[in-house]
Amino acid sequence: MRKVFAIVRATMLEIGCDALALLITMAALAVSTFAPALHYHQFGEPTRMAREAGLSAILVGGLVFSIFGAVRSIRREIESLTIQMALAHSISRGMFLAAKMLGVFFAYLLFFVTVGANSIVAIKGAQIGALVAKGDVSRVWGPSLATGIAPIILPLIIAAFLNRFARFRFTRTAVILMALISILGVFYRFDISLIVRFFAPALALMPLAIFFICLSGAAASRLNANSALSLSFIVVASSLFLFGSHYLSEISAPGASEIPWGYIAMLFAADLILSCAALLAGIALFDERDLS
Amino acid sequence: MGCCAVIRAFCSIFLLEFRRFFRSKAFALLIIASTAWMILLPFILKSDGTAEGAREIYMRYSLGGVFALSAIALASSAASSLAREREEKRLQLSMIRPVSLAYLALARIAALVFIGAITLFVSSSILAFKTRGTWRNCWHVLDPVLESASEEAEKEYARYMADPDLPEEIRKSDKAVLIRLLTRHAFERYEAIPPGGKGGWIFDAAKFSSRPLAVRIRFTNDYNIRDDVKGVFSFGSLKGEIDNITQAIAKIPLDKKINREESSSLREGQLDFENLGKNSLMLRPRRDINLLAEADSFAFNLIRANLELIAILASLISLAMFLGAGLGRSVAVFTCITFMFVAVASSDIISECPDPLESDKVDKMSLAITRAVDFVARPINSLRPLAALSLDECVETKEVVKVTIVDILLLPLLFSLLSAFVIAHKEDGV
Amino acid sequence: MDQDNNQNKQEVVVSLSDISKTFRDFWLRPTVKAVDRLNLNVKRGEIFGLLGPNGSGKSTTIKMILGLLKPGSGEIRLFGKAPTSAEARAKLGYLPELSYLHPFMTARETLDYYAGLCSLPKKIAKERSNELLEMTGLQEAADRPVGGFSKGMARRVALASSLIGKPELLVLDEPTSGLDPVSTDEVKTLIKTLAKGGMTILMSSHLLADAQDVCSSFMILNHGKTVAEGRVGQINGDLGAFFLSKVGEGRDFKIAPFLCVETVPGGAK
User: Which of A39, B188, C50, C66 sits a CA distance of 20 to 30 A from A155?
Assistant: First the structure.
């Protein structure tokens, strides 16, 4: 167990220090904050717009995060030959691969919580804005934008400050601060029902990310980085094209009183089977290859 | 360094980049994916059910898809090219040779543009083959000679301000914002021709007088009103009749001679319309009516459209190369692809967004940024040559020359110089 | 004629005066002072050895000479010109510590690429490629991608590509690193042969025995500063002993107690 924990921890730290992880998180936060603001005049349902923008950011950003995270993390080990050092420490290839994917999943979890929490802040901002604006639709997004910008800009400033004066690692500090500030925002006017209403459909998006972590990790154990990324994104694009509309309508349609727990449980069960299959295929492929 | 020496160095780097792309199997994948897209697209496309509609959609989306695929593949490759060389420390071996650093970027851009050109050439050949029965000559599109929309907006603004009943809120608004609104309004202004009435628009068609001419009108009203449109267009000694229109865009050939004595009211250069229908004809002069003059063959038009697409591709590749010179590989690729998505989305955002006249400062600022992005990225998101090709419009040579000079010569040169500057000042790669 | 030769031999090919280099982080805070007020002259035809322990500033000095790094202060002249000038670079060859090659290219294509960057006409490039492939014993493998080469073979390709432009100054960073004894000997012989042919060679190395065999002059660096310099022939005895006397014995490694295995009858505990 210690071995697995060590690899998981190293993978999380690696992804935390990756500038790309920071960029993807920032982009997802920006989408969850700004995208609804661009459409409010047409629809006039600010809270729904914020909720849907948050879910989209978790879906698309999460998939990009998981695929890049898994592929880069495994390819870097193989290409820099650090994998030889790890495998020299009596750990099987299968366990190594599984532990790496678990590490990527935990990093994804941080992303999920950060963007989810920020979306809740944006929804609350929309609610407050709608009250303050009293019908003046141009003022609805003021509070939302203000609270939405905070988790993007503030962490960068604080991380730069800590890097300059206390030699903290910039990227890792910024990623952690983004999560902290977003989560802190959730406690302002704490509303548990809002959290449940948002995170329930968001949870339904998680199996997709878990599956793609396993799939792209498996691909990266055998193919080079570009091929593994291309393959993963082709599968993402085609699966969203084929099943996307059904999947998204199932999870985003229900209102507050009808969270589809059964559907979410079914998704996790199906995901468990598919992810295990991808993982096993990855292990089988990885066991066969030469590492030099 | 002599000219031959420069060319030799340039060719070596060009060949290196070409081999890199070719041997990574990316080239084969790109060609296979493009070919598959071109061949399989008709099976998944949904058109309006007419052969004409299917042709138009196929023309637009087949090459459009290949362009998008090439843009993503080649821009990613460009973004990772210099970045990878630097990260793997090979760049230093080229940097110590007697060759300008700008060539290191410029030759790579040229190689990737060449690959893009091959991909587009293969796809265009398939397009030409698949549409061989429907090749038609293309047409120059002439807009009516009107005062510019901004001039009209200025006049309208002066008229508004002179109006004592104008609400104080509008009077105090920013002039630039109002002018932008009025300019947009000028494009959307309708002109009505009542039943039995006449309308006229001037076209500068002197240089096309010896060519076959036609009128193109676009209907934005409902289909059930459209079939009542009936009338005669006349232009100089030519006329064309319009009756029972079914399409949203109608092309009426001006191929019948009329007696000039009988049409003494006609002036050379003026297109007249006599409404013989039961309803008023509503047209936006700046959008809905054009005079068409026959240009040259479909093949020439396809070549010009390809040249323009290659030029747009070159500008994207150049930007990506510059990003790769300064940033890490994956960050450069991510930034480049994000830029492309933002570029594509920016025009939608602008069209869907309300004007800042009624919004707050944050909206104004973000819209200003989006407008700037849209301005820079307009060639990428409009993909004008594809629209022209599908509508049998001529991709004008003048435009192609302009785009070629800017996008194939100036931008790559500029970005190569910027890349050279960045490489020379970055010490982490050695 | 002899006078000309002597004058040529006195010509300074590389000159560094009062060179310092401090690396800085994003906030421009100094992180490490790699080179501190270094003065160095390499004359034509010399084999100059830049010696020193790890982190002494050898590679930084070489990269400043090549124009890849800019010195913080001082002046560098290469053939009397700035190291970034095309004229100086045209006379330069460089073999880095690791063989950074494009894995998708064959050995022949690699040589052709660098010949192109040196602007050699196609015909001459082809002749030289063949000569160098023969010299490095790579004719058989000339058309295989270098990505599949062993470390030694990759080193030979890198060496050949550094020589393709027929440089007047060859800069070698740890030229024998990772080579087996036979290849090491071959490289040393090659260096001496090239120097006899009039090429100036500047090499860095930790392997003092190699340096003693090959170099005519040397400089020892420690913590970015010159601690000794002179001609190899003037040292009484072994260069290794001289080096240690200047740099120090180095006692950084201390064996951790748990690594001390007691050997007792019945096996190790």
Answer: A39
Q: Is residue A163 within 8 angstroms of chain C, CB to CB?
A: yes
- Residue A90 is given by DSSP the state S
Structure tokens at A163: 């890097």
Q: What is the ipTM of this complex?
A: 0.83
CB contacts of B29 in chain A (<8 Å) are 230
* List of domains in chain C: 2-91+168-182+195-268 (3.40.50.300), 99-166 (no CATH)
Which helix (DSSP H) or strand (DSSP E) does residue A121 occupy? Answer: helix A93-133
Asked whether the beta carbons of B303 and B394 are under 8 A apart, the reply is no
Least confident window among A105-114, B7-16, C21-30: C21-30
Q: Which of B24, B97, B424 is opposite residue C118, by nearest beta carbon?
A: B97
- Torsion angles phi and psi, residue A201, rounded to 5: -65, -30
Predicted pLDDT of residue A256? 45
What's the CA angle centered on A290, arms A285 and A292, to 5 degrees? 140
C-alpha distance from residue A74 to each of A93, A99, B324 (Å): 12, 11, 23
Alpha-carbon span A52 to C128, nearest angstrom? 65
pLDDT in tens, A64-111: 999 999 999 999 888 888 888 888 877 888 889 999 999 999 999 999
Give the whole-angstrom CA distance, residue A269 versus residue A128: 38
* Total Cβ atoms within 10 A of residue A80: 10
The 10s digit of each residue's pLDDT in B122-155 is 999 999 998 888 888 899 998 888 888 888 889 9
E strands of chain C, at which residues?
A: 12-24, 30-43, 47-51, 73-78, 92-95, 169-173, 200-205, 217-222, 225-231, 263-264, 267-268
pLDDT band at A225, cuts 50/70/90?
confident
Test the A interface: residue of C26, C104, C149, C151 with most A CBs within 10 Å? C26
Exposure string of C70-95, with b = 16+ CB inside 10 Å and e = fewer, is ebbebebbbbeeebbeeebbbbbbbb
pLDDT in tens, B323-339: 999 888 888 888 888 88
Confidence class of residue B4 from pLDDT cuts 50, 70 and 90? confident
Domain boundaries, chain A: 2-288
- Report the chain A residue with the minimal C-alpha distance to residue C26: A164
